[in-house]
Amino acid sequence: MLKIQDYRPQPFIDFTQPENVQAYQAALKKVRAELLGKHYPLVINGERVDTAEKLESINPCDTSEVVGTTAKATTEDAERALDGAWKAFETWKTWDMDARARILLKASALLKARRLEACALMSIEVGKNYAEADVEVAEAIDFLEYYARSAMKYAGFGAHETTWFEGEENGLMSLPLGVGVSISPWNFPCAIFLGMLAAPIVAGNCVIAKPAEDAGLIAGFIADIMYEAGLPAGVLQFLPAVGKDVGEYLTTHARTRFITFTGSRAVGLHINEVAAKVQPGQKWIKKVVLELGGKDGMIVDETADLDVAVTAAVQGAFGFNGQKCSAMSRLIVVDAVYDDVVNGFVERASRLKMGTGEENANVTAVVNQMSFDKVKGYLDLAPQEGKVLLGGEAPGECGGKTGHYVQATIVGDVKRGARLAQEEIFGPVVAVIRAKNWQDALDIANSTEYGLTGGVCSRDRARLEQARQEFEVGNLYFNRKITGAIVGVQPFGGYNMSGTDSKAGGPDYLANFMQLKTVTERW
Ligand SMILES: NC(=O)c1ccc[n+]([C@@H]2O[C@H](COP(=O)([O-])OP(=O)(O)OC[C@H]3O[C@@H](n4cnc5c(N)ncnc54)[C@H](O)[C@@H]3O)[C@@H](O)[C@H]2O)c1
Ligand SMILES: N[C@@H](CCC=O)C(=O)O
User: Fold this and answer.
1) Is the CB of 187 under 6 A from ligand 1?
2) Whether the Cβ atoms of residue 250 and residue 209 lie closer than 8 Å to each other
3) 145-156 residue pLDDT tens
4) Phi and psi for 176 in degrees, rounded to 5?
5) Hey, what's the torsion of the CAs at 370, 372, 377, 382, to 10 degrees?
6) Which residues are known to be catalytic?
7) What's the pLDDT tens digit per position in 210-236?
8) Residue limits of the Aldehyde dehydrogenase domain (predicted)?
9) What is the rounded CA–CA span in Å between residue 71 and residue 216?
């Protein structure tokens, strides 16, 4: 067993301290000098493999800048990655759990030492400001530390309790599944990419990790940390590729044992469907873990501390431009305090500054042209579905830089069934919905097909207890923002169309990547 202290989440960096801002700026310089323009090849069986075609990472805040490139895997590369991973599995599955966990702990130490570099790279590659990038790298470190420790409870024959039976020894053991595919999104390209590969790997599986097309550099940086930490060849196959080609190939492949996917509802449901079809020669029912989108609502009632509510709304809605599955995209306010809350929300949000991640702006650019066009479509719809109280424009440039810039936008008096109130926008756009009273507000909150995060700002104990039972979300927050779950503290994952509620950073997450075997010996 590991001899280490109990898990504690990483503290965040305090950017009100000038020396921390200076350190961040020094890291930005270092990354610009050393990592910009870098190319990450595929890694298959421990060997770096390049491809004829490449994937480019573009700075969303200055689209004239190519941040760097990765190789672009083909289906032949995917086939070789599968072969090698199954070969590596034969040995990796025999490693002691604590030996595997030590690799995660070593990777955590390496990432801690390069924390600001990882942050700075994300500021440039996906436009995160300092705090958003730092929270994410802290989460990535937490995943390593937390999963290394949780692995211990699955180790050995006696790991799970069984009832004693006369004349026999009975036991239940957890075994890895085999080779799986991990497909991750661009919006948490460090933490989610890393968490989704570290968990199955520590459980004894081998993983083909396919990062998102828009954020291959930070993924390459993280994969290198895992290799440097000592992962044997073939245990982690790094395979940047186009999702609809190579992702599809792998999810439908007969030799893929499990799929762990975080991304949009449309792609997640498609994967769920195609993965269910048994392919010729397939020996198992694929295990599919899905973490999808949200249309997350926060209720404010007439008993709430309105200052707390407004702060929570601004943080929850506009952190990383609303590009979080957990983002507060519906603010549901009871009629009695509607005007006060909305005025406060608009006033506070109007102070947010637009700019680049490197400038540490509050609102930066959305990730790519597709996202920009999608969000712009909702801005065009906004005047028909409500009153645009703030923003409403997508200037596409800021401070002389051309980028995917969209204003922080608040749309008031949106009807509960409107598209702005039902569809995931994934940008800095909030629909404010007026509720008659508390019960109406709760009904509105539950009136979507999603069920990821939600919140209530209220001082009424009975209502909070009712919400605890009846608000249909995987992560519910009272009197605070509805984003920013911390590993081990707030296990994260949604219900309904938001996913399979697998709870990343939770006590049973590793069980998603294991199978149980009961063994009985009669004496
Ligand atoms: N629930 C959560 O924990 C969580 C966390 C982060 C993001 N998200 C969701 O992710 C979405 C944003 O991320 P995105 O734009 O990268 O999502 P996306 O669904 O477009 O892409 C996610 C990944 O799937 C791949 N992919 C695309 N088509 C595929 C296919 N046919 N087969 C296999 N793989 C395929 C992509 O290449 C990418 O790596 C939002 O909906 C957001 O809410 C959810
Ligand atoms: N886990 C993150 C959201 C990840 C999705 O984008 C949060 O809790 O805010």
Assistant:
1) yes
2) no
3) 999 999 999 998
4) -65, 165
5) 150
6) 291, 325
7) 999 999 999 999 999 999 999 999 999
8) 52-519
9) 9
